[in-house]
Every structure is written in structure tokens, then in C-alpha cells.
Amino acid sequence: MRKIKIFDTTLRDGEQSPGATINHREKIIIAKQLEKLGVDIIEAGFPVSSDEDFKAVSEISSIIKKSKIAALARARENDIKVAWKALQSAKKPRIHTFMSTSDIHLKEQFKISRADALKMSVEAVKFASDLCNDIEFSPMDATRSDVPFLLGVIEKTIEAGASTINVADTVGYSQPAEYGVLVKKIREEVPNIEGIAISTHCHNDLGLAVANSLAGVANGASQVECTINGLGERAGNAALEEVAMNLYARKNFFKAETNINLKEIYATSQMVSSLSGISVQRNKAIVGENAFSHESGIHQHGILANSETYEIINPKIIGKKTKLVLGKHSGKHAAKKVLEEMGFILSEGQLAQVTKKIKDLADKQKIVLEEDIVAIAGDVTKELKKEEQRVVLDELFIETGNKTRPKAKIKLVIDGKSVEAVGYGLGPVDAVSNAIKSVIPQQIFLKDYYLKAITGGTDALADVVVKVSNGSGKIYEAEAINEDIVMASAQALIKGINKALAKK
Ligand code: KIV
Ligand code: ZN
Fold it and tell me: Is the CB of 15 under 6 A from ligand 1?
């Protein structure tokens, strides 16, 4: 069996997902969970891009010991220096540098020649390999590059010190057969490729990221770059859980395996979905809620006789279980233990808040499922500090019905002063939104509103994500969980407003 290394880029490419908001604390929580999942390399960020990314890479480097930590850098000395600085406390550091190789990028975006691109790539890899002994080089947009030029760049960057070559399908353009041929060509035609890891990095614009990555593996790639739940730029990257489960379920076909601890797949997916604010599509392969549900009578009959009739994977393998974990009699210690098992390390204050919310929910809903707890913990970790909350909800009253115009009466505390407002709308959520917007100190626009029920049933927790803007062009995202849809909507809107006001 060949060993395929899993390079997770949830915290870098995944974080570039439109709409994803992962704060510093959450990045640390996710990194710890990725290590538990058995990821070989964690790409923790792009240190030169922001202070936040620099801090995330530094802290993750000092905490994570089993997985390698990679930091991204453009093919520029300063980027590489900053990446290396952020990696200082990493036990196993890797510098990942990249440069476009396609003519469209070189001509239209960078306005440089192929010769310039080659020179910059080689110089960057040389500079990086003087600092660090593990260098990955990515020819960006490799799949739309002139193949002889691409092979030349690969040869020269290996000569300069790269030990991993990452074949980037940056715009998700490739077809599996084509991508496989490209990887094979690199393996067979680059003269110094022996002993070098070939990596796949496929985007999902045509829905082929996983298929392309697997075609790469079938043709000799030994590293796959992917993200949890397939997060990433535009349509995302190859989904880690799908890559890992293909290699597991079709081991004999690929004759390859990974170090992924499959039992952690479901919990990791749930955690990333809750912390990033990007929910998993119900019918998504492996981790979607419907992935192991059987609706048709014929299928149910088969499953009862032998689950293998219609299930190629036992959900237990990925750690999918719906169990009752905490109830109203569970204390702070029980909550702490369960949350730590799920990878959440919370402060005392946050833990107290989570415990209270779990108890309140158990009072109303009786059963509190794992999904509820992940959502509550994710919600609490996203809360602004008290002093940053200029608008606080005090009381909310709703009138609605089939013969009544929906009306909301709201009492808010704004900058310490109690304010009341009434709003009407097409429905109760609209009425609340209008009431709130009529009294806040600045005009706020609701750009996006998304509601989902976390668990099934009419008593399910409602998870509301809103995006608001204060007209400056910047979008602020906020999420709230409540057993009442209108309350969740009001809380999410107020959180978003506080973010917009605080930043200003
Ligand atoms: O998609 C891409 O080309 C990238 C590179 C930085 C590897 O993310
Ligand atoms: Zn990418």
C-alpha cells in the first residue's frame, strides 16, 4: 500500500471561502482537531497577508506537534521571511511558495514573461530552502500552463531545493483523465522527480475537485491538498472527507491509504461547519445529513436485511452517531469534557455560558444532541466582548397571524440607554428587523439572511446567519442559535449590527 499524505488547507484556502469567518481562537480549535484527525500537514495561513494570519500560524506552530505546519508565501523574499518567522516554533515546519505558470496569469495579471516567472520561482525556492529543509513549490494555474514550460519550471525548482511539487488546478478547469495524464507526465518526464512528492491541489468549479485529486493519486501523486467540507475559494477545494473515504472504501483499487483517523471525520466536519458559518449541504457525500438516510421502502427493506445492500460505508466508521449527550442535570464538568472531546477548549466564562444554554435548551427540548452542542459552542465563541456590544436586546414581543399585520415591539439598550421601537413587516422576522433598524444609531443594510434547523423536529434549534453592511463596503457576518426562529433572527441581527458599529 502506498501512503498518501493529506495536506489540509482549511485554515488557508478554506478560509478564503466567500462568507467564511473563522477567528483566531477558532483557528486554534480547528488546528487541534485536524491534528486529532491525523492530517499530515496543516496549512495554517498566509502570514504576510495579515497580522491575524501571522499570529494564527505562530500560535498553531507552537501548539501542534504531530502534524507538519505549512505557511504560504508568494515567490518574494519578504513573504518567505515572514512565513519563516511565523513558523519559528513549529516542530516540523514547511514553507509553501507559489508562482503562476500559465500565460494568461503571467501576461494579464503579473505582466511578466515566462523567463521572469521561472527566475522568480527558482530564486524563491533557493531563498526558502536556505531557511527551511522542507519546501513545497506550487506552479499556480498549472493545468492551464504550457506543458513543456511547466515541466521546465518543475525541474528547476526541484534543483533549487523543492521537495514537494503541487500541481495546482487553480480555477478547477481540468478533467480527471487530463489531470491524471499531467501528473503522469511530470512523474515520467521531469528528470529529477525521483524522491520528490507530487501533490494535487484541485478546485471544484466544475464539481471535479475530488475526482481530479484521485486521478492524480492513481497516476503517482503522493500528497492531496484538501479542505474540510470542501471549503475554499469560489466553489471550494477537494473535500478531505471525500478523498479519505474514497481511498478507504476503494483501497484495493487505489492500492493506497492515508493516516486519517476516520472516526474523527464527522466531528471535524460538524466543527468546521459551525465555526466557519458555512453549513454542509444535506445531500453532501460522506458528511451530509442525508448521506446515510434511506427513504425508499425497497432500500429500507434491504438495509434491514443487510446494511451492505445499500450502504457502502458504515456511518460508524466516520464517527457518525446521534446520541444524547447532555441534559438539564449535566454540570459544567460534564459539558467541559464533552466539548473537549469535540475539540472545543473554552474559557471559564464561555464554558459557563455554554452550560447555561445547554440547560435552558434541555428544559425546553428535553434532548440535547451533539449537533446542538457544537452549534451552541460555536455561537458562544463568536460572541463579542461585553464592552463591544453597543446594542443589547432587552425584550421582544411579536404579534402575528393570518389576519394580522406582523408587528414587533422591541426594547433595546443602546449605549447604556433604554430605547423602545415598533416595526411592521411581511412576516415576524421582517417586523423585528424593521423595528431594530429604526432605532440603531447608524443605517445598517441586511445583505443576506440564512436560516437552518440544526436538528429535525419542530423543537429544533434555529441557526440564523446574517450579513450586514453599514454602507462602507465591508460586510459583517453574525450567527445566533435559539430555539425560537424570531429570537435567533433578532440576536443574529443585533450581533451583526454590533460588529458593524464596533469596527467603525
Ligand atoms: O489554487 C491555488 O493555486 C492555490 C495556490 C496558492 C497553491 O491555492
Ligand atoms: Zn487553491
Answer: no
